[in-house]
């Protein structure tokens, strides 16, 4: 009876690990979209800066706006990179936990996608 209960708990733990890995991978895809938006915003700010420079005196105010947009793009990019590192670390840790469950308890969750 105790062994059955322990096996059930190990199975639940493994399922939780598998779910955590899948969730982190989904978050990583969303972060990738944020990085793409940041890149596009950066390009728009560069184009705006060039346009403002060509407008000379009339474009001075636009240069300020373009620089603010560039700063926001940079912050978004930096934050996305930091989140990617954290998510990658979380995936690695969760995968290790799943491997240890398999190694020591012989159970591998059927839906395990790594």
From TrEMBL:
PROSITE patterns listed in its UniProt record: CHEMOTAXIS_TRANSDUC_2
Example GO biological process: signal transduction
Pfam families: MCPsignal
Entry GO terms, CC: plasma membrane
GO molecular function: transmembrane signaling receptor activity
Residue span, Methyl-accepting transducer domain: 1-89
Assigned keywords, A-Z: Chemotaxis, Transducer
PANTHER family: METHYL-ACCEPTING CHEMOTAXIS PROTEIN 3, PROTEIN ICFG
Record family assignment: Belongs to the methyl-accepting chemotaxis (MCP) protein family.
Name of the molecule in the record: Methyl-accepting transducer domain-containing protein
Organism: candidate division KSB3 bacterium
